[in-house]
Amino acid sequence: MFGANRPKMADVLSDVRPISLAEIEVARDRIAGTITRTPLVKLELPASSREIYLKLENLQPINSFKLRGAANAVGKLPENRRADGVWTISAGNAGQGVAYAARKAGVPCTVVTIDTAPETKVERMRVLGATLVKAPFDACWTALEQREFPGAKGTFVHPFDDDDFIAGNASIGLEIAEDLPGVAVVIAALGGGGLITGIASALRARLPHVRILCAEPETAAPGALSFATGVASTFEGWKATFVDGAGGKSVFPRMWQRFKDVVDGSIVVSLAETKRAMRILAEKARVIAEGAGALPLAAALSSNFVGDGPIVVVISGGNIDLGTFCELIASVD
To answer: In whole angstroms, what is the distance from residue 307 CA to residue 284 CA?
Structure first.
């Protein structure tokens, strides 16, 4: 339980700051033995005039980019704190990442997981050795803000608002810059903001001319609202959908500070467009993407996207029940 004399969250948080290229490069070296350097593959779409490349983060050992940030955060854990373990809050992918990294480091791991998380993701966290505590979405969202949860012990690994987590994610940006230096636009899904902040931090240092965009579902688009209003905003019409790995109820003010000046905007897509992108990935590239993983392709193909030149879409994850996946892509008109 919470101790009466514990410092308040605001008293212990470090100020928001840019993530430097130097720490991103160090993070890449630190996680090299844990993550996969994923390929960048051109998507052949004869009917489209757009040149699109897929950054296949679904090929990570946990089938999600979250392993990058988790491996860096857990890898930096001081020796004298390892016995107490780590804990995080997750709908599934971050939990798998922290559990995987913790198991490799030999430290205990607890995941507070949203009670509506897909059973596929829950079972994977369990198999990786995590102790699971289920809680309602609102309780998890509050815990993410307060960085506390009743009974949780050890070092908290925030799944997005954490310098080390973001620096690990940023290694994606370094790989894109090296593999396709002529890229014009990079699109990644917006959930908590740790992915887009990391990618943007690396690309602003290596390829400052690149446009960097978020992708969000129409049912959960606080990022687009925040860009429109100029302040971190809450999305009042939020709905839970199959796009469970992206689209929160709000943009955390700290995360807005992190990405508002390095990201160029957000593209909002429909659920139908997202399902269609999932089907295109399966048919044209034989890639299984979860809803959040397909959002960037849906954005790149959307009429809301305007731009020229090579586009990289980050396929952030592929953790989806195959039965659900088949139902979703079969429902595409």
So the answer is: 23
User: Tens of pLDDT along 299-327?
Assistant: 999 999 999 999 999 999 999 999 999 99
E runs forming strands in 30-84: 40-43, 52-56
Contact assessment for residue 208 and residue 282, using Cβ atoms and an 8 Å cutoff: no
Who contacts 251 (Cβ-Cβ below 8 Å, separation ≥6)? 193, 222, 223, 225, 226, 232, 233
Residue in 157, 150, 9, 4 with CA at minimum distance from that of residue 71:
157
CA distance 255 to 77: 23
Radius of gyration in angstroms for the set of CA atoms belonging to the chain, rounded to a whole number: 18
**Hey, what are 137's tokens?**
């979405």
DSSP 70-106: HHHHHHT--GGGSTT-EEEEESSHHHHHHHHHHHHHT
Question: Residue 327's CB: how many other CB atoms inside 10 A?
Answer: 12
Express each pLDDT in 133-167 by its tens digit.
999 989 998 999 899 999 898 999 999 999 999 99
User: Would you say 312 and 211 are in contact if contact means Cβ atoms under 8 Å apart?
Assistant: no
Mean pLDDT, range 164-186, rounded to an integer: 98
Query: What residues contact 246, with CB distance under 8 A and at least 6 apart?
Result: 189, 190, 191, 215, 216, 217, 220, 291, 292, 295, 316
Q: Which amino acid type is present at position 260?
A: K
Torsion of CA 34, 243, 218, 139, to 10 degrees: -90
Q: What is the DSSP letter of 13?
A: P
Burial 126-164 (b: 16+ CB within 10 A, else e): eebebebbebebebbbebbeeebbeebebbbbbbbbbbb
Is there a contact between 192 and 255 (Cβ–Cβ < 8 Å)?
yes
CB of 324 within 8 A of CB of 117?
Answer: no
Contact 58, 86 (CB under 8 A): no
Q: Which residue in 248, 251, 277 sits closest to 263, CA to CA?
A: 251
